[in-house]
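Explain this protein:
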Amino acid sequence: MVIETPRKPNSALRKVGKIFFFGGKKIAAKIPGSGSIPQKFATVLIQGKGYKDTPGVKYKLVRGAYDCLPLFSKTKRRSVYGVMMPDSYKNWSASKYLENKNKGEDG
């Protein structure tokens, strides 16, 4: 992960991940939201959407797919960050998400 600065007039810090394909191609992809960051050698899903204010970044990671975890604290705009509708917002946590995901892979 690399932190880059956007072009003028924006001034926020952008989290950018360097992604290497098996064929040898390298790209830079924006990591949306805050929270967990994929580990090295993680399998991620990318979406082709350019970020105009960050030079060289033409893709973004899809949260909630493969090894990139969703944002568990999101209650609005959940579909953007890969968060499913919980049974109750009070009892929903990352550990329950991972348990449900592991049960689905076994069956």
Summary: The chain has one domain: 2-106. Residues 94-106 form the longest helix (13 residues). The helical segments are 94-106. Residues 27 and 37 are 17 Å apart (CA to CA).
